[in-house]
Amino acid sequence: MPEHTNLARLLLNRFRWFDQALLTTLHDRLGVKLTSAQSLLFATLPVEGARQSDLARRLGVSRQAVNELVGGLEQQGLVEVVPDPDSGRAKLVRPTNQGRESIEVALETFAQLEAELRARIGHRKVDQLRVALETSWGEPPGGG
């Protein structure tokens, strides 16, 4: 009997398809070399900025992990760490001009990838996938 790949693995594999295409495009067009983890952090970063603790919560990782990712993005000139105007002690991580340009290229890339996916597997399948992913699934079961 053939092995049945679980849905979580299928979703992760397809996410990696998008992520690899994005990382390659950013490198080829802008010379930006990101890791997948940096890409995830960058994707959750609002233009107005966010505290590292908020980014850690969004990603489900430690503040130390976010600090390391931010350091790498900062070295590439994609983010800056600035004082938080709402708190004297806190700092915000926000995209630089180069970072905002990378975000624009990423959005263009995702649109191109969706068009490519429509050409490869068909408009109807992409529309159905989009509906399934946009539908609320509720809270995960077994949350304790």
Largest sheet: 2 strands, antiparallel
Count of strand segments: 2
Strand content: 5-15%
> At the first level of CATH, what is the class of the domain at 35-131?
Mainly Alpha
Please identify, by name, the CATH architecture of the domain at 35-131. Orthogonal Bundle
Quaternary state of the chains: single chain
Shape: globular
Q: In DSSP terms, counting alpha (H) and pi (I) runs of 4 or more, how many helices?
A: 6
Low-confidence stretches: none
- Computed over alpha carbons, the radius of gyration is 18 Å
In percent, how helical is the residue content? 55-70%
What is the typical, i.e. mean, pLDDT? 93
Spatial strand sequence of the major β-sheet: 1-2
CATH topology-level fold name of the domain at 35-131? Arc Repressor Mutant, subunit A
Distance between the termini: 35 Å
Describe the structure.
- The chain has a domain of 97 residues: Winged helix-like DNA-binding domain superfamily/Winged helix DNA-binding domain (Arc Repressor Mutant, subunit A), CATH 1.10.10.
- Helices cover 63% and strands 7% of the residues.
- It contains six helices and two strands.
- Strands 1-2 form a two-stranded antiparallel sheet.
- Helix 2 crosses helix 4 and helix 3 packs across helix 4.
Short recap of the structure:
With 144 residues, the chain is mostly helical.
